[in-house]
Amino acid sequence: MSKQELKILGQDGDGACCGALATAPLDEEQAADLAKVFKALGDPVRLRLMSMIASREGGEVCVCELTPAFDLSQPTISHHLKLLRQAGLIDCERRGTWVYYWVLPTALDRLAGFLAVPQAAKASA
């Protein structure tokens, strides 16, 4: 994956990236931006990391608790976490020696809103 920064969805001032999948087609820019977020989630390690962070009681988790769950080196785990941060899905804060991570609920809400199927579309299916 390239080292370019990923554009965080919904950071264009109006708070929304795009409509729901079933309401209107995406334009090229919206599709490219959204694809970057899905690419970040498309790796099994990153998907597990997201799940571990999101499901953590208290809403945050220390990297020291994430690393032992994988048969990967600490730098590799840090790289995966960095990609999730660049995609705008998680954020972190250094506290002394350790870094603590949490999910950004607005990013997940935007993804959920995009994937949601309106009730009218469900009824006609």
Tell me the distance between the termini. 38 Å
Q: State the low-pLDDT regions, or none.
A: 1-16
CATH architecture: Orthogonal Bundle
The H-and-E topology, N to C, reads as HHEHHEEHH
Q: How many strands, what sense, and barrel or not for the largest sheet?
A: 3 strands, antiparallel
Strand order of the largest sheet: 1-3-2
Total DSSP E strands: 3
Gyration radius from CA atoms, angstroms: 16 Å
InterPro entries: ArsR-like_HTH (IPR011991), HTH_ArsR_DNA-bd_dom (IPR001845), HTH_MetalResp_TranReg (IPR051081), WH-like_DNA-bd_sf (IPR036388), WH_DNA-bd_sf (IPR036390)
Keywords: DNA-binding, Transcription, Transcription regulation
GO molecular function: DNA binding; DNA-binding transcription factor activity
Pfam families: HTH_5
Write the layout of secondary structure elements.
Blueprint: H1 28-41, H2 44-54, E1 61-62, H3 63-66, H4 74-86, E2 90-95, E3 98-103, H5 105-115, H6 119-124
Antiparallel strand pairs: 1-3, 2-3
Helix pairs in contact: 2-4
